[in-house]
Amino acid sequence: MADITEFQVRKDKLDETRRVQHDKPTIGDGQILAKVDRFAITANNVTYGVVGERIGYWKFFPVTDEGWGVIPVWGFADVEASNHPEISVGERLYGYWPMASHLVITPGKVSAKRLADDAPHRRELPPVYNSYARVSNEPGYDGETDNDRMVLMPLYATSFCIYDFLKDNDWFAAKRVIVGSASSKTAIGTAYAIKSDAAPPTLVGLTSARNRDAVERLGLYDEVVVYEDIEKLSSDVATIIIDMSGDGGVLGRLHKLLGDNMKYTSNVGVTHFTANEMSPDFIRDRSAMFFAPGHIQKRTKDWGPGEFEKRAHIFWRDAALKSRSWLTIQEAHGFDAVEHAWRDVYTGKTPAEAAWAVGF
Ligand SMILES: NC(=O)c1ccc[n+]([C@@H]2O[C@H](COP(=O)([O-])OP(=O)(O)OC[C@H]3O[C@@H](n4cnc5c(N)ncnc54)[C@H](OP(=O)(O)O)[C@@H]3O)[C@@H](O)[C@H]2O)c1
Predict the structure, then answer these.
(1) For residue 1, is pLDDT > 70?
(2) For 155-293, which CATH class?
(3) Domain locations in the chain?
(4) Is the beta carbon of 181 within 6 A of some atom in ligand 1?
């Protein structure tokens, strides 16, 4: 009986999708079978597919058919079967899952708080993606914040990293931060972090006309500017650009406008994934890609094990609480619901103030 469902996408055409079903695998000695309960879908997951070959996101949950892949998602699963002496059936885990109903995990390092998947094909991949929180062991865990956590934790942890990186670099001697795709959750988290600084630089949110009102309603950015009005920004302020859009046209225009006052651009995301060809005006030598897992590895070395998680968790909890005033998380179940959510996010139809929590 086929009782494992996978949601696959064509790697070169992410809106071509299919349902693949398998028989339930027999787990080996020391392995567990996790039943994926719910996961979030935001533009971040689309980006996993867009940069899947370049960054290696297809390697987490490989499939046999070369042209197809499974997109990774953040969410919760429950242990359905266990051949591991320390992990019980019914335990709940938070972490990185395939868009599928189940995952076989080969636990390596196991502590009361976490377990790591030590499957050979995952060993070379960034550790943050292989680590699962054993939430059933968390004091006071009740599942009430599961949806907030699956949507916001990975994004706001990145926001915390970006803020930490900017502080660590003395804001690159800039007085202003312009955030591209300012309506994205990763951008909003970054704005929360920057605004909580004792002496924050001026914060400008750059967004599309359709999201302007939503971004203004947040009351987080000192100024909200739409992409069409980039040239109206003052050019004489030393500026950092934190960009989630990956929009070559937008970045080229900003760099041309700012010239020497463009102190640093952090290329964080590619929400405008159909427009990411850089123009000749893009200043490469003061721009760099930002990769949160890399920053987390650096801080784990600097601060010692567990300290990054502790600080990021405090930030996430506060910011997630504030986000309840504007964010609606739509929960839906079933293959069709997953497919609908994927298409809604991929085509940019999901409103900026919404996110999906879905499961099979
Ligand atoms: N480097 C890292 O380590 C790292 C870590 C986490 C996230 N990220 C990246 O940050 C970005 C934001 O992720 P998120 O999950 O926070 O996003 P999100 O909240 O789902 O972002 C939604 C916003 O993105 C823009 N957008 C989304 N889809 C679009 C489409 N099809 N066409 C045009 N605009 C579209 C719109 O913003 P505007 O109208 O304001 O442009 C939209 O309001 C992603 O690219 C993600 O991969 C990077």
Answers:
(1) no
(2) alpha beta
(3) 2-144+327-359, 155-293
(4) yes
- The pLDDT confidence band at residue 301, using thresholds 50, 70 and 90, is very high
Per-residue confidence (pLDDT) for residue 2, from 0 to 100? 65
Whether ligand 1 lies within 6 angstroms of the CB of 42 is answered as: yes
- Which of 46, 178, 181 for a ligand 1 pocket mutation test, highest count of atoms within 8 Å of Cβ? 181
Q: If you search the block for the tokens 């660590």, which residue do you land on?
A: 168
Nearest one of 143, 39, 35 to 90, comparing CA atoms: 35
pTM of the predicted structure, to 2 decimals: 0.97
Question: Is 73's C-beta closer than 6 angstroms to any atom of ligand 1?
Answer: no
Contact by Cβ (8 Å): 299, 308:
yes
**Number of neighbouring beta carbons within 10 Å of residue 32:** 25
Ligand 1 atom, smallest distance to 345 CA: 28
Right CATH number for 2-144+327-359 from 3.90.180.10, 3.30.420.40, 3.40.50.2000, 3.30.450.40? Answer: 3.90.180.10
At 339, list the tokens: 């497919």
Place of tokens 């070169």: 12
